[in-house]
Write a sequence for this structure.
């Protein structure tokens, strides 16, 4: 009886072993989707900058994988195969889509607090993503600053950088996934790094761990908004902090300017703005509510905070999209007697 041909796969196992393992995974497709759903969601989000699009892209990935499962030959792991499908689904999607920026990425001048607020719902803004929706080995790879910077890269450079730097694929694996050459992959990665460097993005600009001192600062930040203590809010920001708030085109630089903006443009007063903590893009976030004439509180905006190396906030993106509250598991209203800070005034009266 003839022997079975055996070759090495990219996972270091024999072809027959890989075939058996892949066959076991593909046999239960529901379990397969459950196993890879959240990490593919993170991948498609990095590529698209949109939670809604990422959900559709993941579903399209699984649909294509299901249709092609019978022809899967086990030359790579199922995980690698799924990422290859997902990457190409994303690239096809991006062919007809503009990039998703934040207001600070539009290249416009900083706004003054007295400037008129300019709203633009035609811009496909970058969206925040709940931490619970994704699975990542390193939180830095979904930081808002990192994903925003990715949106400035051409689609294929974006794909190369994610596959090489985030997923740690080799140049050869990346070239196979993108149907190109190793030389082209290396060139694209070099250009992507140069583009990110031009935007001032380094690992230090997106890496922050939530230490106990930072948690205390976040508690103080929540209390300052509840009391509408502008001086305290300013103290909790770095001197050159930035603030943007899609869909508004305006963006602001400097703690004093941000304080003046909140003081003059924010409609709430003392005890009008409770916040509930959450996390987005691996970063601290708050759902801010606004008191209504009837007394209760309704969603106002979702803040995603970028922490500085010290115990201060260096960038706040306030997303004015009430639909985000449900996506982040936040209630659609708070009762009139809700008080987020013990000892704080319960009403404006």
């Amino acid at each position: 009886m003839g022997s079975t041909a055996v070759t090495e796969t990219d996972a270091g196992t024999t072809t027959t072993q890989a075939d058996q393992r892949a066959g076991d995974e593909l046999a239960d497709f529901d379990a397969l989707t459950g196993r890879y759903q959240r990490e593919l969601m993170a991948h498609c989000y990095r590529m698209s900058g949109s939670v809604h699009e990422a959900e559709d892209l993941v579903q399209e990935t699984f649909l294509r994988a299901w249709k092609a499962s019978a022809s899967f030959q086990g030359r790579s792991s199922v995980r690698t195969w799924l990422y290859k499908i997902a990457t190409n689904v994303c690239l096809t999607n991006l062919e007809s889509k503009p990039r998703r920026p934040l207001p600070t990425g539009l290249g416009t001048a900083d706004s003054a607090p007295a400037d008129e607020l300019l709203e633009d719902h035609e811009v496909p803004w970058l969206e925040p993503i709940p931490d619970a929706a994704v699975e990542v080995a390193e939180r830095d790879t979904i930081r808002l600053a990192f994903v925003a910077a990715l949106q400035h890269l051409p689609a294929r450079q974006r794909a190369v950088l994610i596959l090489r730097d985030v997923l740690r694929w080799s140049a050869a694996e990346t070239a196979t996934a993108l149907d190109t050459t190793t030389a082209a992959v290396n060139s694209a990665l070099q250009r992507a790094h140069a583009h990110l460097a031009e935007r001032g993005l380094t690992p230090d600009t997106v890496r922050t761990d939530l230490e106990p001192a930072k948690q205390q600062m976040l508690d103080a930040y929540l209390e300052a908004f509840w009391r509408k203590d502008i001086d305290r809010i300013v103290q909790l920001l770095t001197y050159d902090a930035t603030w943007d708030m899609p869909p508004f085109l305006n963006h602001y630089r400097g703690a004093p300017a941000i304080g003046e903006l909140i003081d003059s443009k924010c409609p709430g007063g003392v005890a009008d703005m409770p916040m509930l903590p959450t996390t987005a893009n691996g970063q601290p976030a708050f759902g801010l509510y606004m008191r209504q004439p009837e007394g209760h509180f309704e969603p106002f905006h979702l803040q995603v905070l970028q922490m500085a190396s010290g115990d201060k906030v260096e960038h706040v993106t306030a997303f004015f999209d009430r639909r985000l509250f449900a996506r982040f598991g936040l209630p659609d209203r708070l009762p009139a007697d809700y008080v987020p800070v013990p000892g704080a005034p319960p009403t404006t009266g």
User: Anything to note?
Assistant: The longest helix spans residues 29-48. The mean pLDDT is 88.
